[in-house]
Amino acid sequence: MDLMHDPALPAHEDPAPGTGTLPPRAWYARSDAARLPLNGAWRFRLSPTATTHDTSFADPGHDTSGWDEIAVPGHWVLQGGGRHGAPAYTNTPYPFPVDPPRVPDGNPTGDHLRTFDLPGGWPAAPLPADGPADGETLLRFDGVDSHARVWLNGTELGEFKGSRLPHEFAVGTLLRPAGNVLAVRVHQWSSGSYLEDQDQWWLPGIFRDVTLLHRPAGAVRDFFVHASYDHVAGTGTLRVDCAPGGRVTLPELGVDIATGESVTLPAEPWTAELPRLYAAELATAGERIPLRVGFRTVAVEDGVLRVNGRRILLRGVNRHEFHPEHGRAVDEETMRADVLLMKRHNVNAVRTSHYPPHPAFLDLCDELGLWVVDECDLETHGFGALGWRGNPVADERWTPALLDRAARMVERDKNHPSVIMWSLGNECGSGAGLTAMADWIRGRDPGRLLHYEGDPTSRDTDVYSRMYADHDEVRRIGERTEDSLEEPALDARRRAQPFVLCEYAHAMGNGPGGLADYQRLFETYERCQGGFVWEWIDHGIAHPELGFAYGGDFGEELHDGAFVCDGLVFPDRTPSPGLTEFGHVVQPVRIEPGDSPGQAVVTNLHDFAGLDHLAFSWSYAVDGAETEGGPAPVPPLAPGESAKVELPAPGNPPAGEAQWTVTARLAADTAWAPAGHVVAHGQWSAAPRPPLARPAGAAPVRDDALIRLGPAAFDARTGEPRTLAGVPVEGLRLEVWRAPTDNDHGAGWLPETELARRWRKAGLHRMRHRTDAVEAADGGLTVRTRVAPAATDLGLAAEFRWTADGDRVALTVSVTPEGDWRVPLPRLGIRLTLPAAYGAVRWYGGGPGEAYPDTGTAALLGRWSASVDELQTPYVRPQENGARARVRWAELTGAGAGAGLRVEGEPEFALTARRWTTAELDAATHRPDLVPGDRVHVTLDHDRHGIGSASCGPGVLPQYELAARPAAFTFVFSAA
User: Fold this and answer.
1) Is 427 a residue of the active site?
2) What's the pTM?
3) Averaged pLDDT for residues 881-887
């Protein structure tokens, strides 16, 4: 398509989308027409600028003996060991002067060459003048960043932009049986870069497939599958528009119709929960294409987003395409692994932030079941810092490029039932170009909804979308009492729209916090239909010294640091605690206690599925050890229904704290998980914890420089313990500091969220400890201390009261704040250090993973064990991590260490154990900075500040804040 080409500018700076390419069309993975993948090893040469006019490299016979070799699909900056430049990360700023549509002379340009032969029988003769009697051949590029100029056998085919979109050329007349030379010149920067300012690494190259497609005479040029569902009648209506015409067969339903004709008949609908696909075939005179048809209808009815007549709740994630070694060159095996991991954590929706994904990903969403918001390859966020001056979406010169991008997305992906919304793009402000895109998409595909967040008026959309709205704003939107727009008509229109959080719960580092509080709002207000956590994966690039690299690690002069590592899975796709928490918060079955501890209330939160695919079981545990269990008699429940389930009475359980746990597992293998996979669980108290028995009676005895009290010995001068129950300990003192999380650091553009800065300003990272008194009397040892930072009168008066009997020693800590505290505490507890041999941990408390005050719903009460090393959560940028919550007791032991140390707490406490200090954790910037030392550093927290998601969202909710206030807590130590 040749759209408004400006001859005064070089092609890569022209705002027009390109020249020489064919109109966009539907993508499909297979047909009986021949295809030749051109992926693999290509010859490669890199130039520092785009100013060279020498195109002789595209001529057959050009000497490439001095060139490098790279893999396609791939990015040249991730290949060549640094010889081809380096990645660069920015969130919003353009990494070049903003002077649209111009880009700098310093413009890395990669020349790519591929020589190939045609398979036997591939027609290569020139086409007759009256049409393709023997067929045409197309050359297809599925993704090139950011501008490509293409030659075949010395003839220039054209050029294009739109990095994450497909482009095709007709090449049949140019092909030879052997020795074909395909040449592609790729500029890293182009006018298209102004439209591709997404929050991600800047990674140039041919990063998706290159394919030669034979188009026999009479082959399909394009087709559109229309498959709606009438939930009242229980029927599906199928029509397939196709050029040229042909026939559509769907054997399972007895369908055999001409293209363009409609048929209505009983059918099962497609949904993300029950992704029913029918095998069909589209046949024309020259080609047969297998189809997978899913019947479904998307609509807004009474202000609610409905699919097949039912309200849906989006339990979604934003997904960038990313691989830690290959960047955006993601293979299908990795895509499938992503979808399986999503399904296994109860994710039901994906927003393809911020561009259409590889088309094979949408096939997987069709097959395995995910709702998809398909987003256009469009973001101009960098203009926001300029007051949106020059924003391309408000400049008519760019409208052809915007329309081209919209068309290439819609035409490519229009036959996927998983796609329920088109998104115009992301963070582009507002402008006539967006309205033009919306009008074109509505005219082409009125059967899907339109999404866009960047215009608060929602004038071009069918849903009201927001990013990072806090919980109170979500509540007001749910009540339709949000702030009004100035134009009454627009305000009324927006209030009638369903609400979606297209981004929320920023999953950067430790967190996100507050997920359960959001989910309660989604389940309370019909208008609030869920949203998409930002985001799926940390974009850490594998690095030999740093582990995983982030912004600034490649010498970028402008970068946004670790902000690119904000996913629910780590770069190697290991689930983070955040994904575990999200999977529990959004579980599609709610299991709660009923009117009595032995009664469960089970609610089906699926939108479409019953519970017949699940097997329920119960267990009864005392002090974390299961004593009984069996199947739970949960009746069939339709979506939204609840039932009270009586659990069998335990026979003769031992005395102690007891819990009921009810678990829902897959009853049989599915396409996404094996039988037995846990889908949901609920746990509640059956009997409370008995009070902790506190030892007393032993008298303190002075022994030279020590004071002995029961099984403990203390420094007579400082009152610090030297041994507890025979275990050497060091440095036991009050602890209030934690290595700040990414969310503690907050968002730089919102200073009020920068809690870590406030903590450091108050001096909480450099607290001084003073011993005021050591008193051995009254059947115990009392140590009075004051803990305070320099340069302020803030402080914490702490009394350590030790009592003991022959085997156990108790510590009761009483804390009284002094001064005018205007900042919350990171934590409040004690720390102590053990020898390195104490590297094994057992505990009765929450587990198996980490948990914090607003991230702990997935942690089950039980008995758990792990090594100290296994307790660490490997966040890409080191920070506070690894705490096990609601601990009743814990034991630290080790081979060759002698007796271990057991600690019990009242009230329950949080446990961390590390082979480095908090100060070392605070100072580390990458995982390899953390070098195990010769000690195990243990913290026993009485209370902790929550996590929130203030790295790009709301901070900690009031109920999870840790204010400086009087507190008292007890620990009892004994031999393990």
Assistant:
1) yes
2) 0.96
3) 98
